[in-house]
Amino acid sequence: MSLNQQKNELHQRLWAAQERWFALREQGVTKHDLKTAGLRERNDPWWACRGLIFTGNTRLTYERTLKGLLDFVHARGIERNDDITKREMRDYVHHLIDRGASQSMLDKVRSACVKMLALCPLHAYVYFPLDLDHRPKYPGGSSSGGAGCWPR
């Protein structure tokens, strides 16, 4: 697979993650619903969020950051995104450290690498189906919450 094809595949995965969020949001699912489902099902509030991207800015930042990773691993002979492991990601971070990357850049790379692993079919978590019938009921019987609905 060429480097351009790898980058296109990355773009498609990130875009699909954002489209999953759009589809859930249209069904009335909130981030709070996802976090409570994660806590209820796996004792991890981020479990149901790992396969989603919530904003376009985040998607673009991940894409820009991960394209550098793809350049790095492609130069090492890895030609499929699914073949990228934590080891290659760690080597990329060490490469950036050797080049004097800032802490904020390293944080972006770490975050983007975690998201890439979460979106990879080989490492993916199971996200769905969400049990929307068991959404927590907020005071007043609403399942959507609202400002100031929880007692302080």
Order of helices and strands, N to C? HHHHH
* Rg (C-alpha, Å): 18 Å
- How many domains make up the 3D coordinates? 1
**How would the global form be characterised?**
globular
> What's the story with the biggest beta sheet?
none
Number of strands: 0
Uncertain stretches of 5 or more adjacent residues: 123-152
SSE-based structural type = mainly alpha
First-last Cα distance = 55 Å
Mean pLDDT: 81
Question: Can you count the helices?
Answer: 5
What percent strand? under 5%
* Helicity level: 55-70%
Task: Write a structural description.
With 152 residues, the chain is mostly helical. The chain has one domain. The chain is built from 5 helices and no strands. The chain has helices at 3-26, 31-42, 56-75, 86-98, 103-119. Helix 1 (3-26) runs antiparallel to helix 3 (56-75), helix 3 (56-75) packs across helix 5 and helix 4 runs antiparallel to helix 5. The radius of gyration is 18 Å and the shape is globular. Mean pLDDT is 81; it is low at 123-152.
Quick overview:
The protein is mainly α.
What are the SSEs and their pairings?
Layout: H1 3-26, H2 31-42, H3 56-75, H4 86-98, H5 103-119
Helix pairs in contact: 1-3, 3-5, 4-5
Labels describing this entry:
152 residues, mainly alpha, 5 helices, 57% helix, globular
